[in-house]
Amino acid sequence: MEQFVNREDELHRLRALYESDQAALAVVYGRRQIGKSSLVLESLKDREGAVYYQAVQETPPVQLTRFIEAAKSVYPGITDIRQAWEPLLRYLIDQDAVVAIDEFPYLIDQDASLPSIIQRLWDHEVDESGATLVLTGSAIGMIHEHVLDGGAPLYGRVSQTPNGRIELQELPFRSLREFVPGYSNEELVFVAGVFGGTPRYLTPLDSSLTLGENIERLLLDADGPLHDEPETVLQMELTEVNRFFALLESMASGNRTRNEIAQGAGIDSRDTSYYFDRLETLGLIERYHPVTADPTRTKTTRYRVRDPLFRFYFKYLYGRAGQYELYGDGAYADLIEPELPAFVSNTFERLCHEAVPTLYTDLQLLRVPGQWWHKDREVDVVAPTSGATLLVGEAKFTNSPLGYGVLAGLEDDAPHIDWTPSDGGDPEYEYALFSRSGFKPSIEEAAASRDDLQLFTLDDVVEALSQAA
């Protein structure tokens, strides 16, 4: 069974809705394997009068029969109710039941009227009820279309106090140690860079094994539980998978602009809009912009695979399984391990972004720190503030101590960043260097003699993330 870690806020919100004297509607959504079912099941533990139904891709009669089977052990009288969604749900509302329907979009696929039926019940039948209805879904676009967006049948019906709209994201970095309690801070960063924060991918990790042994056992082994996971998930969600796979492989190889990605996939960039939009809707890729740019206006856009495990799969496993089998036992050590620090460097950079608010509590940040780039210039960490200070930094996940050349390059790039303080004038630059392997004496000497330069080790970053709320 999936290990249950974190999600305290979401658990509290669901349980508060269950305890309410008023009818409550909640929707729990997020991409596949993110932990929606585990959250709902955990929230229902030891709760009397709760019905949990795992929807399936079946015909409407089978779905109704399975729903009644799930409910009758708690509410035997439901077997006397006509087998249709409206009378069945009305009966449970009259019982003040807590009803959780997992993968609600499967039901909509077969009966598009179901959201409107729930709307009608919620508008006219729940005034005297304390029932709670929890809907979950991995089809994020469908959840928005039928529940969350303006014009959706259930728009405005989701509970507001507490907020019943629960979008599950990856677990925060600080939760990873609960899955591999014996790992060092550096090993935790590698875990984040390969397995991400999805509970389903973290649970099989064995903290008595090395990172390499876990990767071999879970991913490289053809019988490993995560070996085909990304491909399986994508085939459940997508048609024309070949083009989607080609685009994801191109992104995982390092292509970032739409033209680069399309070219790497062998697809005309004019034919990619549908595929990019679909992958974004599913939460599999994300677009991002220079942190100082207005996302609604800028045309400077890059794309990346959101989930580290998917990125690992499409970089090292997709279409290459036979290569590792042929190579034998040394495949990980010889073919993957030497490249792993470079692969994980993007994750380390993101963790540095997340750590900045804790490391610089004296600065009032205007937005979440991020990257900045223009033409051939790029800065890993940029954070505008409410004053005249612009925080700029570099994050290096290499095997060697960071040298003075990195600072010199950062000082050369900083004046090119397009940002002006709100009160006008020139920015005052605060420099930050983040390094996996420490710093050369020349950098340490510079930091000791300057008040505008701070050095942060990997341990500093991990400690800051452990303190973050």
UniProtKB/TrEMBL annotation:
Keywords: ATP-binding, Nucleotide-binding
GO MF annotations in UniProt: ATP binding
Limits of the ATPase domain: 4-203
The keyword Kinase is annotated on this UniProt entry: no
Keyword Transferase found: no
Top-rank taxon: Archaea
InterPro entries from the UniProt entry: ATPase_dom, DUF234, P-loop_NTPase, WH_DNA-bd_sf
Ranges of residues in domain DUF234: 313-399
PANTHER family assigned to the protein according to its UniProt record, in alphabetical order: ATPASE (PTHR34704)
Protein name: ATP-binding protein
Organism of this sequence: Salinirubellus salinus
Species lineage: Archaea, Methanobacteriati, Methanobacteriota, Stenosarchaea group, Halobacteria
